[in-house]
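#onboarding

Welcome to the new folks! Below is a worked example of what a typical request in this channel looks like: someone posts a single protein sequence, and someone else replies with the predicted structure as tokens. Don't worry about understanding the tokens yet, we'll cover that in week two.

Example request:
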Amino acid sequence: MAAFTMTSKPMYSARANLGGTRVRAQRKLAGASAAPMGAVCAIEVGQSSVMGSSRKQNEDRLVLKYDEGATDTPFANITVFDGHGGFATADWLTQNLHTRINKIWLRDTPTRAVRKAFISADKALLENRGFMGMGERGVGGGKCGATCATVLAFKEDGVTKLLAANVGDSRALLIKDGQPAIQMTVDHVPDSESERERIEAQNPNPRMPLVKFVGGTWRVGGLLALSRAFGDAYMKQSGFNEGIADLGNDYSSGFGVIADPDVDVFDLPAGTKGWLIVSSDGLNANEERGGGGGIENDAVAKICSETTNPTELAAKLTKAAQAAGSTDDISVQCVRLEELC
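Example response:
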């Protein structure tokens, strides 16, 4: 089992099965005297990340931060970034997104703070133009991007709340003992009717649909099997039109790909037992989008009922997805709910 203190950087290259991580945080109680030296709280998080069989490198990244003493900002951040077209965007987000969320959180409501942080982070990613302003727009290049699923735990009026936010098709599941899985996030994919309608409503030429069925799956611009993502400068309005000429059309206003997250907040009453699962889409059944097999939410819940060990659970979930035929990178973080509430 690996361990790190809160002074280290809780981000991972996610190239192999990571096992479990015990996060220790020194108590910092606002408005009270410091706790005795050595007084700590801890949560144990099961983590696993495996490279897909059709991949040259694992582009998933995990972020885990925990500080029970945080009172004005979230005390836990459990996040999975799923990179595509390279890992530069995912790497940048592991370094920067959490800080942006906390900064805005202090002056706005939780939901608005997260939305503003996501959108401002994407703007910063897209503005990057390499050395001395030369090169492609976008961190990692115009075709580098990432999805994100994050769960932030915070206290409000003495009650633990879980804020789930996502861009793309990475997922967060809330699995209470003896109950069906609750999907906390919304898959942002072009085969979703609401997403297709949102994109086509901005289409300047309805005779040339922006969402097309290509290579066995629905794709924005006939290329991207996601409708929301960080990065992907070539699919977003820029004024520079990266990639537009290559696509053989004049959609200089972009293709409707955005980084505006869906955000929802869930109460977590004291004593709640079960699991919080945050994963990249490689865990999930998504054959219609080219990811191979994977497992349904109910199958995830069933596996969760078979163990109380986070490390063992993370390994079981990745193995089950592979056995079901997932060819994608698979990354998962597993947290016992009772350790958050």
